[in-house]
Structure formats: structure tokens, C-alpha cells
Fold this sequence. Notes:
Helix content: 40-55%
Strand content: under 5%
Low-confidence stretches: none
Amino acid sequence: MRLLGGPSSETYLWSLRYVVLLWLSLVCRIPFDLEQFDEVGQHGRTANMIESIAKEYLDKAGLEREGAAILLARFYTR
């Protein structure tokens, strides 16, 4: 799964990916059920997508890794 489709493969757009990861980490801090965004019969899909996006960027160098780590930390503590 790629974050933001095309821009996720462009190296010069690292700042955009970093900001999106931080934005997702802020969304994880809001106390609501993520399943309300899932379609009928797809329980946990939104949560799984957030987790897989963050895990994809843990192996990147620089701020993308830090953003992914922050996102996972906030996601797991909710």
C-alpha cells in the first residue's frame, strides 16, 4: 500500500509524506471508533490501513521514519 499514490515514490516529496503521517497521528489521538469509517462487513479495515501505511515507512531514512514511529505509537496507545 502506498501513501498518497504517486507522490509516495517521489523522493523530493518526503516532506508531504511526513506531514501526512503526522496528520494521521493526530487523527489517532481523537477518541472515536475508527470502525465508523469502515464499510459494512469490513470491520477493522481503517485501522489495518493506518497500521500498514505506518509500517511501510519505518524502513525509510529521516523524518518519514520518525513520522511513522509517532503514528504507530499514537495508534497503539489509543
